[in-house]
Design goal:
CATH topology of the largest domain: Serine Threonine Protein Phosphatase 5, Tetratricopeptide repeat
Distance between the termini: 43 Å
Radius of gyration: 24 Å
CATH class of the largest domain: Mainly Alpha
Largest sheet: 4 strands, antiparallel
Number of domains: 2
Strand content: 5-15%
Structural class: alpha+beta
Helix content: 40-55%
Strand order of the largest sheet: 1-2-7-6
Shape: elongated
Number of helices: 13
Length: 348
């Protein structure tokens, strides 16, 4: 894609937030401390039904035909936020703020394009679906992060477009430091033992980017009780990662993996009471949590479950090191249960 990308410093600005009240629509644009919010311009056309909010330098922050005409507007700047208040002409709820392109300048902002795509993607009308996809492609091409993530999810479903998906994900991870994408790239690499060390590096990066699930996944990799293959198992590191994960966010996966460590005595003093308490918490969060295995004195799990050597999905052969290792899989935003659920399905 040759289209200029949204700069990282303006990612939050383009992901504006709406607060709808009975008679007004309040749109909030957050901006970086280095950005001059006084450069933002609000313009109306077509009897106040078309709006363009921009700074004359980048893509418009909000642009297109409004759901209905507005009577008036106010602006204010508060705590790194540029807020626009739109006075409704009718006290009705707006299902969407921008319905289509601006009737005069023909433009549309990246977030509105993504929201229109999501609206049209549920339509039974084929033309609306095609139109929606064109909006998604535009929004993704300028790297509005949520839409680029979603577009990558669609491209991952086909071997022909898989390389493009990975390239988009690499840009999101490296240039935009998008933790969810970094995490999913790590999960893709986990499908091939050759690249497990790269996967670990990406998981550590994702954790720093604010994804607590990356910590419990690291715990699974290092835990000798997990089904993930790795020749450098370290129960002490596993416990540290799992405990760190729980400090940030409760997780049935982290509780269950810790329960197995305490039940087996790997990396901790064996304590069945603590193991059962962690298992109880895991089940409270997810009633599909697997049963806690019983362990013999040798720390071997007393189970006849066959641990899968690899996932039963094809590896795509491409030229880059990530693609050689990559698995064709659906993209899951957030990615919380991706690896865990796939392994669980194999052993249930």
């Amino acid at each position: 894609m040759s289209t200029p990308r949204i700069p990282k410093t303006l990612v939050e600005t383009y992901d504006w937030i709406i607060n709808e009240k009975e008679d007004v629509i309040e749109v909030t644009f957050s901006f970086d401390i280095t950005y001059n919010a006084n450069s933002i311009v609000v313009e109306f056309a077509n009897d106040n039904q078309d709006i363009a909010i921009h700074d004359n330098e980048w893509y418009p922050f909000l642009c297109g035909k409004l759901f209905q005409r507005v009577e008036s507007f106010k602006t204010k700047i508060e705590n790194q936020n540029f807020i626009v208040e739109l006075k409704k002409t009718e006290n009705v709820k707006w299902p969407i703020i921008i319905t289509t392109n601006h009737s005069v300048n023909k433009g549309i902002d990246p977030k509105s394009a993504f929201l229109i795509y999501r609206l049209f993607s549920n339509s039974e009308n084929e033309q609306e679906q095609v139109t929606g996809l064109s909006y998604l492609e535009y929004s993704a091409s300028v790297f509005f992060v949520p839409s680029t993530r979603h577009y990558a999810s669609l491209l991952l479903r086909s071997e022909n477009t898989f390389p493009v998906a990975i390239k988009l994900m690499e840009i999101l991870s490296e240039s935009y430091e998008d933790g969810a994408t970094t995490y999913h790239l790590a999960l893709i690499l986990m499908g091939n033992l050759v690249y497990i060390e790269q996967s670990i590096s990406l998981l550590e990066k994702a954790a720093l980017q604010g994804i607590p699930d990356a910590l419990h996944t690291l715990g699974e990799i290092f835990s000798p009780c997990s089904t993930i293959e790795y020749d450098k198992k370290d129960p002490v590191r596993a416990r540290e990662y799992l405990s760190s994960s729980l400090e940030k966010k409760e997780s049935s996966i982290a509780y269950h993996e810790l329960a197995k460590l305490y039940a087996s005595g790997f990396g901790v003093e064996k304590n069945i009471d603590i193991a059962h308490e962690y298992q109880r918490k895991a089940v409270e969060l997810d009633d599909q949590t697997p049963a806690l295995p019983s362990y013999s004195e040798s720390n071997e799990a007393d189970t006849d479950i066959e641990i899968p050597a690899k996932f039963d999905v094809p590896i795509v052969k491409t030229s880059t090191k990530i693609l050689r290792a990559a698995l064709v899989s659906s993209f899951i935003i957030g990615c919380g249960y991706f690896i865990y659920k796939r392994l669980k399905k194999r052993v249930d």
